[in-house]
Amino acid sequence: MTKYLLRRLLNYLILLFVAVTIAYFLAGTQLDPRSMLIENELTKMANTTYLEVVQTVDARLNNWNINPQEPIVQRYVDWLGMISNWDWGYSPLGESVNKQVSNRIGLSLQLVFLGFFIGIIGGVAIGAWAAVHQYSIPDRIITILAMIIISTPAMVIAIGLQMSAVWFNNTFETNFFQFIGPQATIPPKEFLPMILNRMQHLLLPTIAISMGGLATYSRYQRNLMLDTLGADYVRTARAKGLRYGTAVRRHALRTSLIPIATYFAFGIALLVLGAAITEQVFGWEGMGIYGVRTIQAQDINGTAAVVAFSGAATLTGAFLSDVLIAAVDPRVRVN
What we know:
Largest sheet: none
Order of helices and strands: HHHHHHHHHHHHHHH
Oligomer: single chain
């Protein structure tokens, strides 16, 4: 199994390099920070000629290796040299991409991975339970609630939670629900109050993100469990005297986890950048909203850094899914 996982990890690293390279070439050829800066500088420097503005902008962009007038291949080679030293360059406004990303990665990881794993684990548990109790009243209630959540846009869910938090705080005269990001307040310096303060800020956006996962994965797991519950090997195990609960855990649930494990990587990818709406509503300055802003600001280096982060998160999820598949599927261990 170790050799299998190492091969998969090497493949993922190669895929990550290829994906980031493609993203850099797309950003470097399609984004145009030069025109944006020239227009901005012309409005600021009324007494300066157009040629002087162009020369100033070109000198600045050349210094940051993001001038669209330069050959993309040469810029890519220079960019590889920079990121080999973990320097992701500068935005067209002169902001360090390293600083911008480092301020946001921690926030995104707290929010996305917490919501993701709650959605995965909770969704699988709910779906397995609903399959075992098929067509019962709780199963029908779970199905209705899941379809409502899946059909509701993420923005509506986030705003609804925010309005509910405002109503709760006003009704009970408390500040229990903090629905604006952690940057909006100064956290306490003491360790325990600081942790509690961060948990208060994480509560609502985590619920907003995990609700979609709970609903979606519960539907996947329920259908997969129903297929395995009626399989021959489960009926054979029951005929040999194995208790129903043991047969469900050892055979039906274990087998149904194999296909759903492949959804892990795609789920993380969608959350990393798809959380931009939730981050916007709750004032959470993470990588999702930063990814949107880099494209709006014609930020080549920032866009490449966002793709690298989202790709690393995706491939981390893919590797974890491989580990899970290897753990539950004996056929993988012999390879």
